[in-house]
């Protein structure tokens, strides 16, 4: 396999285009598209009601990743993707997003995937959502390995005003962008991605990170796209479907741009979600649970790979993967020697390019504050120790527009779950036999519980402490001329907390 990879990486494609000789770089281009809060049943290849013809075609012509795992919320997932580590090993909680008022960010002692790719000769560009810290400029994308960034730092922004609360949050590198009021953000990120591709000097390899805000709340989409869906009682579900259709058009534009520039043959395009859906706008059917929790619906998310690099196409890859695998995998594909690197993930080239077997058997999904609390997957088994929300299973309002089981609000509440009154403290599921987690087998298989529990205990011994975080109004928009802006903390490294600074407002 190593021999084949080397051959692949040293091929230099020369083509005659418009009378000029374009030399394709020997290192492949990587286009990483990350969706937000898009659950198992929110994509066209899993749900016929969701109109994403381009995504469905790319998934079916590429490789569908059937066991692609994430963390249950935005920031920890993004941290894993960028570092190749579990959040609990990089000073973060596995299930808590960064707050708007918190002086914190992804630890500055870490070298991120774009920094490593940049060292390997890549042009690196990011567009869309960041959500890995912004109180110090050092936390922001252009100081963490990206040549350019067009997007926003926070979560839950308005798709048209680009505001979080009353403050603007739209940036092009170090400049706030004030002239895009009223333009739907999925169009902004797609257009930016196309622009990067069109202006890309193909003698360098490209790493393009497109982190769509869709389909996170607030649920907003162009009215004509919403109208193209059948009216259903659940207004948010219908809007979310429309949000996915606009993403689909954006990805179509991106793939067309790659093809037009003759880059697709030498590109690995990856599409993932950062965590599961939020019922009832989002939908994780048939999986159990939701965003924020550790049942499969919160962490097993839709994904595929596509492009000229694939050695097998049109199949479903069953190999177990976690977000922390992407850094080692992509660096390997980029020809970077990772033998001296520390990752929790591993090189999954065989899953991603061949649809082959996984190099991992275990995923530590979660470590609670005290041992042995947590969630672990090992082989086909999954053990949950600790208080877990007693959440159930979604039904899709598109399939069942007039639900018999209560109102849309009831369903939403059922999906959101209630505190675990009566929820079992120890739960064991066989994910292969029972992917929807219906039968807790803990009492039948005590030796498996013991074996997985001891793995959790071992992981607890080396997890990193989460620094004490200061919450403040120091970064609020009124202090920075109406913009959510960096400049009010000094970021921390190697587990130190960020500290507040007294700064003069800098943003105009
Ligand atoms: C994906 O995995 C699920 C659960 O393990 C399984 O039921 C399903 O058949 C798989 N899908 C495909 C297309 O292989
Ligand atoms: C896709 O490209 C077309 C043509 O340039 C443009 O009108 C449309 O807004 C783009 N769609 C998205 C979602 O960016
Ligand atoms: C990709 O390569 C194949 C085989 O060499 C060729 O037929 C095809 O036209 C190429 N496509 C693009 C978009 O360059």
From TrEMBL:
<feature type="signal peptide">
    <location>
        <begin position="1"/>
        <end position="23"/>
    </location>
</feature>
<dbReference type="InterPro" id="IPR017850">
    <property type="entry name" value="Alkaline_phosphatase_core_sf"/>
</dbReference>
<keyword id="KW-0325">Glycoprotein</keyword>
<keyword id="KW-0732">Signal</keyword>
<dbReference type="InterPro" id="IPR024607">
    <property type="entry name" value="Sulfatase_CS"/>
</dbReference>
<dbReference type="GO" id="GO:0046872">
    <property type="term" value="F:metal ion binding"/>
</dbReference>
<dbReference type="Pfam" id="PF00884">
    <property type="entry name" value="Sulfatase"/>
</dbReference>
<protein>
    <submittedName>
        <fullName>Arylsulfatase J</fullName>
    </submittedName>
</protein>
<feature type="domain" description="Sulfatase N-terminal">
    <location>
        <begin position="28"/>
        <end position="336"/>
    </location>
</feature>
<feature type="region of interest" description="Disordered">
    <location>
        <begin position="392"/>
        <end position="424"/>
    </location>
</feature>
<keyword id="KW-0106">Calcium</keyword>
<dbReference type="InterPro" id="IPR047115">
    <property type="entry name" value="ARSB"/>
</dbReference>
<keyword id="KW-0378">Hydrolase</keyword>
<dbReference type="InterPro" id="IPR000917">
    <property type="entry name" value="Sulfatase_N"/>
</dbReference>
<keyword id="KW-0479">Metal-binding</keyword>
<comment type="similarity">
    <text>Belongs to the sulfatase family.</text>
</comment>
<dbReference type="GO" id="GO:0008484">
    <property type="term" value="F:sulfuric ester hydrolase activity"/>
</dbReference>
């Amino acid at each position: 396999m190593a021999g084949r990879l080397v051959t692949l990486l040293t091929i230099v494609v020369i083509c005659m285009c418009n009378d000029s000789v374009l030399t394709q770089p020997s290192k492949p281009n990587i286009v990483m598209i990350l969706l937000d809060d898009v659950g198992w049943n929110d994509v066209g290849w899993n749900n016929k009601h969701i109109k994403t013809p381009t995504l469905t075609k790319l998934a079916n012509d590429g490789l569908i990743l059937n066991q692609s795992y994430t963390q249950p919320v935005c920031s920890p997932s993004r941290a894993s993707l960028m570092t190749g580590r579990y959040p609990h090993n990089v000073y973060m909680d596995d299930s808590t997003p960064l707050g708007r008022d918190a002086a914190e960010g992804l630890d500055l002692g870490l070298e991120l995937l774009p920094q490593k790719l940049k060292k390997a000769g890549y042009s690196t560009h990011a567009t869309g959502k960041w959500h890995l810290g912004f109180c110090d400029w050092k936390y922001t994308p252009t100081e963490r390995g990206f040549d350019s960034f067009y997007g926003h730092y926070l979560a839950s922004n308005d798709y048209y005003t680009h505001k979080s609360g009353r403050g603007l949050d739209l940036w092009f590198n170090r400049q706030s962008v004030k002239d895009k009021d009223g333009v739907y953000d999925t169009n902004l990120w797609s257009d930016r991605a196309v622009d990067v591709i069109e202006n890309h000097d193909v003698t360098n390899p490209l790493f393009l990170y497109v982190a769509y805000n869709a389909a996170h709340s607030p649920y907003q989409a162009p009215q004509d796209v919403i109208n193209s869906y059948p009216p259903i009682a659940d207004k948010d579900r219908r809007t979310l479907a429309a949000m996915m259709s606009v993403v689909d058009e954006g990805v179509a534009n991106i793939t067309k741009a790659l093809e037009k520039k003759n880059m697709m043959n030498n590109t690995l395009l990856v599409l993932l979600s950062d965590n599961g859906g939020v019922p009832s706008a989002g939908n994780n059917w048939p999986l159990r649970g939701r965003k924020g929790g550790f049942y499969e619906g919160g962490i097993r998310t839709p994904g595929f790979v596509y492009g000229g690099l694939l050695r097998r196409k049109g199949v479903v890859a069953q190999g177990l993967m976690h977000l922390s695998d992407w850094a080692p995998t992509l660096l390997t594909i980029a020809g970077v020697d990772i033998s001296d690197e520390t990752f929790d993930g591993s090189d999954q080239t065989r899953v991603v390019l061949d649809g082959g077997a996984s190099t991992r058997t275990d995923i530590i999904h979660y470590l609670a504050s005290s041992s042995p609390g947590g969630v672990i997957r090992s082989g086909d088994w999954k053990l949950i120790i600790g208080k877990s929300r007693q959440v159930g299973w979604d039904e899709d309002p598109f399939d069942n527009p007039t639900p018999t089981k209560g109102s849309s609000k009831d369903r939403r509440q059922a999906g959101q779950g209630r505190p675990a009154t009566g929820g079992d403290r120890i739960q064991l599921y066989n994910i292969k036999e029972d992917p929807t987690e219906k039968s807790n087998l803990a009492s039948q298989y005590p030796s498996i519980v013991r074996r997985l529990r001891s793995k959790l205990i071992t992981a607890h011994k080396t997890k990193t402490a989460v620094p004490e975080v200061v919450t403040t109004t120091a970064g609020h928009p009124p202090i920075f001329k109406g913009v959510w802006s960096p400049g009010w903390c000094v970021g921390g490294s190697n587990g130190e907390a960020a500290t507040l600074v007294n700064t003069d407002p800098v943003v105009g």
